[in-house]
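Aggregate trends can hide what the representation actually does to any particular protein. In the encoding step, the backbone of a single protein was reduced to a row of integers, each denoting a local shape. The record that follows shows the chain in one-letter code together with its fold in token form.

***
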Amino acid sequence: MMTASASLSKLAGGFAGWGVPATNPAELNLMLRRNEDIIVVDVRETEDYERGHVPGALNVPPGRWQDFALLGEDALNIIYGYSGRCHLAARAARTFTGNGCQVIEMTGGFEAWKSDNFEIHAL
């Protein structure tokens, strides 16, 4: 059984060599089911978040990226954007890690989460 911190130390590479660790939807789903100490952060626009998001995810769209109080200081923050073609999550990860937050990017974004048929919450 891998904990969130073990996942962070195991993962390497990140988005296109940007130095941000990465995970995938299946591993995030396992972390959520295990109630690991993680914070899931959706960096898409609020309207898209409201239409559907990973269960328990916080919405921190680009206009709020400087509000680091929303992120977990001691917890691992797993962020995602729209898709694997979207650089939004990678840019957010660089901003957050540059300010001392522990971040992992979920590869494939929300599109991959939906494609894997994992649970989706909507407002």
About this structure: The longest helix spans residues 88-97. The beta strands are 22-23, 38-42, 58-59, 76-80, 103-106. The chain has five helices and five strands. The chain has one domain: 21-115.
